[in-house]
Amino acid sequence: MSIESEIAAYMRGLYRAVGATLKTDVLDAAREKIVEQLNDYDWTQSRGEAVGSGGLRDRQQIVGEVWRDGDTFTMQVVDEAEFQKQPRSAGDELADVVTEGDEAYHMPYPRPFMDPAERAIDLDDALGNGLRKRGY
Fold first, then answer.
1. pTM of the shown model
2. How many angstroms separate the CA atoms of 87 and 107, rounded?
3. Can you tell me the distance from the alpha carbon of 39 to that of 35, in angstroms, rounded to the nearest whole number?
4. Which range has highest mean pLDDT (13-27, 57-71, 83-97)?
5. Could you give the C-alpha distances from 81 to 1, 21, 107, 126, in angstroms and in order?
6. CB crowding 11-23: b at 16 or more within 10 Å, else e
């Protein structure tokens, strides 16, 4: 096997490992930080929206997608929790209403949680640990 083919094989494995790490380890770190940010607001604790309830703090509702374009990976994390009752306006997402605030939903002021969670994630740590677990 030539050195070029060995490097190509290594890089294919590395790209697979990065994708898998983003979909698992980094997504788990993002979930934790999102829940931490939501826990900073009294309203989420008082409503009891805990794991498994389908609410904003339910880790199962926090999903991620990963795309690769050449050497670049992109990850998007979304909280897909739905309203407890039918939303008044079609197209409104619970996470957006909470983040931006909306009087119509009795949320008079913004409670941003996604952006602070994104800033709080230790990406180097989550990615590094995940890659080490996969042999890189």
1. 0.82
2. 13
3. 6
4. 13-27
5. 50, 24, 16, 24
6. eeeeeebbeebbe
User: Helices (DSSP H) in the chain: which residue ranges?
Assistant: 3-21, 27-39, 42-47, 94-100, 114-120, 123-133
Q: Where are the domains of the chain?
A: 3-133
User: What is the reported pLDDT for 52?
Assistant: 62
For 78, which DSSP code?
Answer: E
Question: Tokens 């994104």 sit at which residue?
Answer: 118
The residue type of 77 is V
Q: Which residues pair with 65 in a beta bridge?
A: 76
Q: Which residue has the tokens 């805990």?
A: 50
Looking up tokens 């709080």, which residue turns up? Answer: 120
Give the CA distances from residue 123 to residues 26, 72, 88, in Å, rounded to whole numbers and listed in that order.
7, 15, 37
